[in-house]
């Protein structure tokens, strides 16, 4: 048995120590973990939480990930694709309302029409969001799945703002058997874990701030698996992490496997956030919207456990019902302006401030950039 108070003083952890921390259930012990994660976040990342305005561009998907509500073979969902002008309008609104960064997310496609469409959107977003407040334009996070290195580079060039450019590509689980179970549907784009990791390598080579993450509570997943996920975060040298609980979707292909009980799943998710903060240090960690399904203040509590990024949904409300990756997704009717202000009040109630008009790049990535600039030519 470990001495928890002494363990929480460490910055380098063994696998056994990580597994112990992930498995904490006693409220007093969980509180100690939460307090140290919060303190460590303040010391390493400051006191601010950064917004990434989420724009869900399209729910058209060529993949059949078995857990996902917008998988290709779900014929119940009404498919949509935002126009270029609709996407640009939301990005410009974000830039004018204090969001220094947006996130473009969509179902997975690799056709040239889609690739060029995103490229055009990025160019125009950059052009229309350059201002005295944002001299390099609004920052961009892309979450558009597995692509070739050439495509990643095209999008990076089109963004016009490599200093505030991110990509989120979660590997979902480092356990190859679990990964195969999640993505075992047959199809042209059947997923392979090694390929997902290769994409993370390409993104780093193209200069993106590399984000990845996992699902927590996958049926059959163990604490050891989650520990190995954290080790994979270290291995890929992630700059940011976006992860959340495994939630069922009635229109997916894994409903029969069920879902962990909500209270236990919520605490496990919080533990995973906190331990990731303790192990990974000065990276960005996003508070997943999915946590709101498990607790009405899920994202705010996640801030107390070490998160410093939130992604308010800026998608037009008419599209939101069609972009439900899991059941009971919250915020389908939230107005972006009033929701953003209300969210700020809730963030302030947790002792944090919103970093309005600030890119909020991970300090780990910034430090790496400084070292590169100091290298002799």
UniProtKB/TrEMBL annotation:
The keyword S-adenosyl-L-methionine applies. Its cofactor is [4Fe-4S] cluster. Binds 1 [4Fe-4S] cluster. The cluster is coordinated with 3 cysteines and an exchangeable S-adenosyl-L-methionine. It holds the Pfam family Radical_SAM. It comes from the Bacteria. SMART domains: Elp3 (SM00729). Gene3D superfamilies: Aldolase class I. The keyword Membrane does not apply. [4Fe-4S] cluster binds at residues 61, 65, 68. PROSITE patterns: RADICAL_SAM. S-adenosyl-L-methionine binds at residues 172, 196, 247. GO terms for molecular function: 4 iron, 4 sulfur cluster binding; metal ion binding; transferase activity. Residues 47-286 form the Radical SAM core domain. CDD domains: Radical_SAM. Keywords: 4Fe-4S, Iron, Iron-sulfur, Metal-binding, S-adenosyl-L-methionine. This is [FeFe] hydrogenase H-cluster radical SAM maturase HydE. It comes from Turicimonas muris.
């Amino acid at each position: 048995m470990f001495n928890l108070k002494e363990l929480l003083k460490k910055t380098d952890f063994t696998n056994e120590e990580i597994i112990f921390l992930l498995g904490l259930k006693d409220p007093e012990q969980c509180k100690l973990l939460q307090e140290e994660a919060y303190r460590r976040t303040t010391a390493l990342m400051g006191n601010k939480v950064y917004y990434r305005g989420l724009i869900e561009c399209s729910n058209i998907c060529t993949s059949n990930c078995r857990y996902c509500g917008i998988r290709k073979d779900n014929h119940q969902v009404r498919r949509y694709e935002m126009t270029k002008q609709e996407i640009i309008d939301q990005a410009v609104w974000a830039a004018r309302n204090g969001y220094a960064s947006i996130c473009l997310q969509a179902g997975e496609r690799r056709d040239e029409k889609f690739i060029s469409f995103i490229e055009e959107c990025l160019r125009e977003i950059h052009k229309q969001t350059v201002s005295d407040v944002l001299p390099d334009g609004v920052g961009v996070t892309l979450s558009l799945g597995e692509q070739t290195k050439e495509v990643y580079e095209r999008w990076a060039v089109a963004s016009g703002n490599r200093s505030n450019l991110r990509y989120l590509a979660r590997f979902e689980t480092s356990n190859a058997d679990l990964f195969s179970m999640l993505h075992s549907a047959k199809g042209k784009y059947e997923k392979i874990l090694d390929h997902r990791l290769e994409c993370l390598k390409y993104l780093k080579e193209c200069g993106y701030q590399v984000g990845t993450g996992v699902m927590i509570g996958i049926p059959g997943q163990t604490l050891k698996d989650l520990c190995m996920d954290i080790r994979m975060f270290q291995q890929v040298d992630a700059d940011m992490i976006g992860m959340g609980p495994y939630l069922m979707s009635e229109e997916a292909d894994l409903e029969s496997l069920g879902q962990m009980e909500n209270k236990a799943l919520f605490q496990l998710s919080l533990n995973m956030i906190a331990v990731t903060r303790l192990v990974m240090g000065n990276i960005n960690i996003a508070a997943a919207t999915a946590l709101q399904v498990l607790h009405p203040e899920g994202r705010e509590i996640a801030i107390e456990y070490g998160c410093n990024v939130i992604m308010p949904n800026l998608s037009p409300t008419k599209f939101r019902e069609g972009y439900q990756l899991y059941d009971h997704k919250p915020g389908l009717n939230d107005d972006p302006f009033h929701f953003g202000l209300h969210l700020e009040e809730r963030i302030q109630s947790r002792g944090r401030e919103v970093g309005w008009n600030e890119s909020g790049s991970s300090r780990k990535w910034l430090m790496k950039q400084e070292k590169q600039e100091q290298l002799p030519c």
